[in-house]
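Dear colleague,

Following up on yesterday's call, I've attached the two folding results inline so they're easy to grep. Please treat them as preliminary; we haven't cross-checked anything against experimental data yet. The first protein's sequence and structure tokens come first.
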Amino acid sequence: MVVIVLTACPTGLRGDVSRWLLEIAPGVFVGHVSARVRDRLWERIVDTLKDGRAIMVFSARNEQHLDFRVFRSDWQPVDCDGLQLIRHPSEEDAAFESFAGAPRHGWSNAAKYRRARRYGGKSRG
């Protein structure tokens, strides 16, 4: 089973996707296709979609029996101990990620060894 949700979809792309899947609402396509067709459809969507967003949910052989693909969306697929989840990052997360990407002083291996020598050399007895 495959479910694709498209926003701001060009008519040519809508026609290509509707050849394989049934459009049950504007921009929502549902159907059952092989993995090869599903992957080719996703490639076509990614290549053709200019301003819109795309989300695809499909059957997979994992614990949840489904998997996600996201294109140009705020949502991010996240693997959490073998479970696929969709995460919607907030502005706080973006600020944290920009801070986390900055180099931190004192976390190199040399700094760890220096601290270990400084604090580990004293024995209490």
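Below is the second protein, in the same order (sequence, then structure):
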Amino acid sequence: MVDEPLCPYPRKLCAAPSYLESRGIPKHPRDLVDHICLTFHATGSTWSFVSPGGPVDVEVRSAFSANDTQVLHDLALRGRGVAMVATYVAEDSIRTGKLIELLPEYPVAELWLKALIPQTQARKPTVRAVMEWLRVHMHTALVLGEKPA
């Protein structure tokens, strides 16, 4: 298999105001060990952040794990805990104040979406064309937040 990078998958750490009123606002990623955390099944319960001093990894206690970022977003909206949610899903809720972005001074470490291609297929022109189309359109939608043309 060939590991083909497509685009970054930006995420935000967020929680509802009601949750933060009852549990407090974390000031540092290590404060998350005292919070109810909602995790994405594929990335697990080790959350990684970027800091001026280098990477910060925190092993959070997962109260709930899902394989769908929309489910985590919905639970966070209901005040059920802190969630690391895809930016494209969370941005409207953050903009309207339904969710609060947490720890913006410690951005969530970058995660990349990738395609796995059988090595025997990787150099075929149609496969290369599909990969390029995916790169452009996924970057436009997920990173730039625009609807692809």
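For the second protein, one point worth flagging: Residues 97 and 135 are 31 Å apart (CA to CA).

Best wishes,
A.L.
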